[in-house]
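Q: what sequence does this backbone want?
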C-alpha cells in the first residue's frame, strides 16, 4: 500500500517539476514538453526499479 502512495507522490512530484520547467519556458519550445516527459519517465522508471529490487529480495 505504501508503494502505491509513493508512486502517486513521485508522479505528482515529477509532473510538478516538469510543469515548472515548462512554465519558465512559457511553453514556447518543444524542449519544455520533452523536459516534462523526461522527468515523468525518469521518476516513474526509478520508482519501478526500486519496486523490482524490493520484490526480488
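A:
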Amino acid at each position: 500500500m505504501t508503494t502505491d502512495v509513493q508512486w502517486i507522490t513521485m508522479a505528482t512530484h515529477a509532473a510538478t517539476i516538469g510543469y515548472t520547467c515548462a512554465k519558465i519556458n512559457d511553453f514556447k519550445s518543444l524542449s519544455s514538453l520533452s523536459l516534462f516527459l523526461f522527468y515523468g519517465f525518469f521518476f516513474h522508471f526509478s520508482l519501478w526499479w526500486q519496486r523490482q529490487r524490493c520484490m526480488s529480495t
